[in-house]
Amino acid sequence: MFLNTLSGRFLMLTIAFVMLAEVLIFVPSIARFREDFLLSRLERAQIASLALLATDEVIDANLEAELLRNAGVMNVVLRRDEMRELILSSPIIAPVTQTYDLRDPGPWVLMMDAMMRLWKRDAELIRVIGDPVKEAGLLIEVTMDTADLRMAMLDYGVRILWLSAVISALTALLLFLAVRIFIVRPIHHVVDAMASYAKAPEDARRIIEPRAGALELREAEEGLNALQTQLTSALKQKDRLAQLGGAVARISHDLRNILTTAQLFADRMESSKDPAVARAAPKLVNSISRAVNLCESTLAFGRAEEPPPKLSRFALAPLVNDVIDSERLAAGEHDISYAEDIPSGLTLRADSEQLFRVLTNLIRNARQAIVATGKPGEICVTGREEDDGWVITVTDTGPGLPPKAQEHLFQPFQGGFRKGGSGLGLAISAELIRGHGGRLDLSRTGPEGTEFAVVLPREFAEAPEPVPQRAAE
Predict the structure, then answer these.
(1) HSE (CB half, 13 Å, CA atoms) of 237?
(2) pLDDT score of 471
(3) Which residue windows are transmembrane per the record (predicted)?
(4) 121-154: buried (b, 16+ CB within 10 Å) or exposed (e) per residue?
(5) What's the CA angle centered on 45, arms 44 and 51, to 5 degrees?
(6) Coil, helix or strand for 450?
(7) What is the pLDDT of residue 470?
(8) Whole-angstrom distance, CA of residue 40 vs CA of residue 34
(9) What would the 3-class secondary structure string for 319-361 be?
(10) Which residue segment(s) compose the domain that 370 sits in?
């Protein structure tokens, strides 16, 4: 279990990497030890040869054997004055297998020779050549047994390995503690904060407070803090919307009953002999019918989501004309002109009631924006058919949308641009168009006016996200 943790894996990796580094250090070290060992034998052999030179090259056989034994060699050869002399010697019972020249060895040669010596277990006789100390001659050459050399190298290697193990363990322990303190503990803080927040996302007290010292971990905590803050705000907003939906559903239920009664009286008005009443009665009946349908849809929305569109083919011009007539009456005495540019034969496939609501919201918003300026204005509705669908645009000469409204354009209770506005109209309109597989775009906005585009696809497909703004003047 421990090895599956970040700390455990880091500990094992640290030990492995430190041991690898020690191995890379071990090879040059053992090669240097072997070279020093052989050079010391040459130096001791040179000192032993001085005893013979001091006695005019006459020495007792026992003393010669003792000198060779103390020097750790079997014979000594000196080259002086261009002459090679056997200074000290003893019987050699085996042939010489290798000759090593230590006068100018390369590092790779020393390391290879050292590794080969550790690999060979059997003792053998070797010849070693080097420079005499203090320039006491041109060359010194000794013959020696490798048993002592290999044992000394093994002893040195074991001490190096033990030292490497201690250093590795100490280094791994220090790094382990450092990782626990500076990395693992902050990560646990983030994980604990996420688990605590998941238990009660609505509780703002459970939002993580960034406190990590490391830049990367602090950025992660700050990102999590921003995410949790937005999520908590969204959850609170959805809770308010749910409560509002329940209230609207109850109001719509009662309003539907009232409108149903009004619809019965409006039906009787159609038989009136008054020409003005007879002309107004059909529009009144249609308006009340749409109000009843809206109440039904609101009740459905309170129970779940907006009902799916009932697609059918219909002419666009009469629907737009009906919307504009209703808005013209609502405008009253305000100087607002309405224009339509809809081909008479243009038909599209959509839910006529939902599209009526969408266009009503867009034209009403445009009318209210113009009325707020106190100046005359114009609202124009155009429609056209394209290869992949239909595009309906609603353009006004109002003051344009403020930056805050553009930033939260299709979000309920955040995209309102009028004082007291809730932004629900655009949010609902965008949802209705997405239900058709289309999108509601803000094509442009600025001091010269605003233009919204309703894009309806010819083929029903999964709805894309709305585009808040394509270009702003």
Answers:
(1) 12
(2) 38
(3) 6-31, 160-183
(4) eeeebbbbbbbbeeeebeebbbbbbbeebbeebe
(5) 95
(6) strand
(7) 42
(8) 10
(9) HHHHHHHHHHHHHCCCCEEEEEECCCCCEEEECHHHHHHHHHH
(10) 310-473
Domain contains 201:
no
End-to-end CA distance of the chain: 62
Q: Token pair of 453, please? A: 């585009």
Is residue 405 within a helix (H) or strand (E), and if so which, with residue range?
helix 403-407
CA–CA gap between residue 360 and residue 429 (Å, rounded): 9
* The pLDDT of residue 421: 47
CATH number at residue 321: 3.30.565.10
* 42-58 pLDDT per residue, tens: 888 888 877 666 665 56
Query: Which residues in the chain land under pLDDT 70?
Result: 1-4, 6-7, 51-59, 81-84, 86, 135-137, 244-273, 277-280, 283, 285, 289-306, 412-424, 460-473
Matching residue, tokens 């003047």: 473
CA 289, CA 296: separation in Å to the nearest integer?
11
End-of-domain residue from the set 125, 151, 172: 172
Residue 83 lies in a domain: yes
Question: What single-letter DSSP state applies at residue 411?
Answer: S
> Residue 334: CB partners within 8 Å, gap ≥ 6?
367, 370, 371
Structure tokens at 230: 């937005």
**CB 451 within 8 Å of CB 444:** yes
Distance in angstroms (rounded) separating the CA atoms of residues 378 and 359: 16
pTM for the model = 0.42
Strands 125-130 and 312-315: unpaired
Q: Which residue type, as a one-letter code, is found at position 411? A: Q
Closest CA to 5 of 176, 239, 209, 259: 176
Answer for the pair 133, 46: CB distance below 8 angstroms, yes or no: yes
Residue 236, domain member (yes or no): no
Look at the chain and count its residues: 473
CB of 332 closer than 8 Å to CB of 395: no
Q: Which two tokens stand for residue 27?
A: 């090879």
Last residue of a domain, one of 172, 202, 229: 172
| Angle, CA of 356, 360 and 365, to the nearest 5° | 155
Q: How many domains in the chain? A: 2
Q: Is the dihedral of CA 227, 230, 234, 240 positive or negative?
A: positive
